[in-house]
Every structure is written in C-alpha cells, then in structure tokens.
Amino acid sequence: MGGPCRLKAEAEKLATKAPDCTDNFQVRPFNFDGQEWQSVEQCYQAQKFLDATFKEKLRLMEKGSGESDSQHGMRVWSEGQRGRDLRPDWEAVKVEMMYRANLAKYLQHGDLQADLLATGDAQLDGAASTKWVMKSGKTVGWSLWNGLIQTRIREELKPVSAQDSDLLESLRKQFEDYLVRQGGNQLPIPGAGSEEMPLQEE
C-alpha cells in the first residue's frame, strides 16, 4: 500500500510528511527485471504472480487523464487482489521484493535520491497500511516495513564514508531474518539487491 512516509526529527514531537519519493504509489516510471513500471506499487503487485498474462495486465495499467498517483495506485492495488497464481513463497519474499522495487526506482532517478538523502537522519515511519501475521504469530505491517525500506535505501545511497555501518548492518539483518523466518525463497527473486548497487565514492 502507498502514502508517503512520516518524517520525525529527534527534537520534534510531531511527524511531518516525508517527500513523495517515499510513497509507493508515486508514478515515476523505472525499469525492473527488463520491463518498465509506472510505480513501485504496480511493480510489487505484479511480482506476486506467476501468471505472465496477469502480470502484463497489471504492468499495462497506466495513469489515466485526471487520475492522481494515489488513485492510480489504489486501482493497481485493487487489481492485484484479483490474481490467482500466487508465488508459493510470496509471504517470505514480499518485503525483499518491495525493497528491490524501491531500490530500482531510486537508482534510476537522481532527483529522487536527492530528495531522500535530504531527509538527513530523521526517523522515517511508513504511513498507516495493511498488516499480516507471520508464521511466528507476530503481526507486522507496511507501516513498519516501508519505513525500514526507505531508511535502508537512504543509508545505502550515502557515500561509504558517510554511512552508519552499524545501522546498515542491523537493517540488512532484519530483512534477511524476515526472509528466513518466513521459510525462505523457493524461486529466484528478481531485481537488483543491495549487493549489486554501484559503489559510492568516498
């Protein structure tokens, strides 16, 4: 689900709206796994399914005249609930998939990288969104993971000398632990992971 993250500086009591780049519904075309997508949400919804025809139907859902990014995102999300041929390991790979779709968008848009980096070290929390129950019985949701995804990518986009290595290691471990605890991936996960990111200059 979409909606910009919330931004909270350490000295502030109330969170403010983070840049639009932190919204999965933002329409900014990018390439992922050899195809063009209009938004992170569109790409994410399509990756849930093995049926190539249905995936292509989702991919071809372009923003209509007079339609807002949010309206387009909700239309894509709604269509994504209709698919049948779900990846057998989807509950395990969904968080990594959302991360990789976001990463692809940022790597292809320098202005969006600048917008995210301009948030400094402020806490990024995801907007209110859907939740699910893990195999452990713990309830988690996108309000948590969207914030972690944006925080991780923000740190990875910094020059190596400016990165908080402890924070980055902790974030990457959370993603790895989620994947493992949910049973791991049974099929390849498309898209570039952080290990394939170009090295930042010192």
In short, what is this structure?
The protein has 202 residues and is mainly alpha-helical. Helix content is 43%, strand content 10%. A hairpin with a 2-residue loop joins strand 3 (30-32) and strand 4.
Question: Can you describe what's shown?
Answer:
With 202 residues, the protein is mainly alpha-helical. It has a single domain (6-10, 21-188), classed as YbiA-like (Tetracycline Repressor, domain 2, Orthogonal Bundle), CATH 1.10.357. 43% of the residues lie in helices and 10% in strands. It has helices spanning 40-47, 52-59, 69-80, 90-107, 110-117, 142-157, 165-181, and strands at residues 6-8, 16-17, 30-32, 35-37, 123-125, 131-133, 139-141. The strands form three sheets. It has a three-stranded antiparallel sheet. A two-stranded antiparallel sheet has the order 3-4. β1 and β2 form a beta hairpin. α1 runs parallel beside α3. 31% of the residues are buried. The mean pLDDT is 92. It comes from Polarella glacialis (Dinoflagellate). Residues 28-124 form the NADAR domain.
